[in-house]
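Input/output pair, single chain:
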Amino acid sequence: MNKLFLFFLFLIINCTLVIDNCTSQWQSDVRLTNDPATSITAYLNNSWCVKASGDTVHVTWSDNRNAQLNLEIYYKRSVDGGLTWGDDIRLTNNTGTSECQSVLVSGPYVHVIWADYRDGNGEIYYKRSSNGGFSWGNDIRLTNDGNASQHPSAAVSGSDIVVVWDDTRAGNYEIYFKRSTDNGTTWGMDTRLTNNTAISDIPCISIWGSLVIAVWRDNRGANAIEHAYYKRSTDAGLTWGPDSRITSDIMTQWYPSVAISGNDVHVVWEDYRVSGGQNGEIFYKHSADGGINWGNDKQLTSEAGASVRPSLSTSGSLSSPNVHIIWTDERDGNKEIYYKCSTNNGTNWGGDIRLTSNSASSYYPFISAAGPIVHVVWQDNRDGNLEIYYKRNPTGNPISIRNISSEIPTGFALYQNYPNPFNPITKIKFEIPNNAVIARSGATWQSLTVSLKVFDILGKEITTLVNEQLQPGTYEVTFDGSNLPSGIYFYQLRSGNFVETKKLILLK
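Output:
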């Protein structure tokens, strides 16, 4: 009877652990700014105000705490996965407004791109750090014309930085593009991506290797109704395909956001087809072949209140990436932050998760995932003025690993990655012996945690591929180095007293 009781107790404990692991573990809101001025993320969903890489989290915002009371770009970072934060760093210093900022990370380089009005009209500016955000170079003006260049969106893959924005130099709003192939040291010419008499604005861009996808809002259709359009390049922005409309519905679709993972392209947008134009819902679309063909539209929200300004991030393995979506939602009578996730490449989606709960307005959120952690920032006026808030889920980004053998290994083993050198994807195989239960005392069961991490040549952690309890077996993990520069890296398997490290080479 006692053995039977212990057996069922063991089952209950393990079932509870499984349920807990499948339930979001969002931690408390953290206030990142604390001054009586206005601190805002970005008022459009095409910017990227947070970016995580390994244990370092970078956040940017606009702030008017200075004596001139104009918006300037500020930055802060955490080097322990969002647990603690450094000081606020002011990145711009001029009398014009600086806003709509994006932060990008590639190896030691941190790039910030924004719209700036110091020249009397909107222009696109750029700034970078080559040491992980510790120190910063000068402001670099990327556009130079007498019209409005604004609403920039940017993305990075290795040493390639791509930027899109809307521009009135042609007499109406059109989408323009610019790129750097050397981590922002030099920049190419402006390239006009759209050419019609309608308004093309609020672009968003993503890059993966040589595949670049730009999406934007466009009213060239009948009755000047806004719809979501996209354009693709397969040579990192040198040449571009035709403009294509993402959806065929006659109602308004706008504010699209895009993310690429391998050949998978994910797009979300704000859509008014359900309510007859009364309030927005979040819709999603997926392409599995780099934007050539697209699946059906998926409605992700269905509430009486408006669901608006979606932003998304992808992470995990190429075989089944996680897709994270964040947006502003008014179903509760005021603006709150909501979140939704797919762990199988957008095929199925979890429920809506409310991340904020206060009587004030929480809105304009942005999201990034690295390792097992999901990071979210937004602007919030619960303190009587707008401040920047942060929230994290330490287990919200499950890393996809495959158990590739049913045989039980006799010991730990870490194999050489394949291929090596690689660009940008490689696979890492390791073995875990029969140590799922290493001690038993009464009803006490113990397991070993397995971690697999990647480090740069200086020993700085780049990412955590695995950090969980595993059953005995042989596993394979996919490592994606598309956002890293060429070089030598190391991967380390650790479990209990076992530690083994091997070298891998990224060659682009």
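The radius of gyration is 23 Å. Residues 1-23, 436-447 have pLDDT under 50 and may be disordered.
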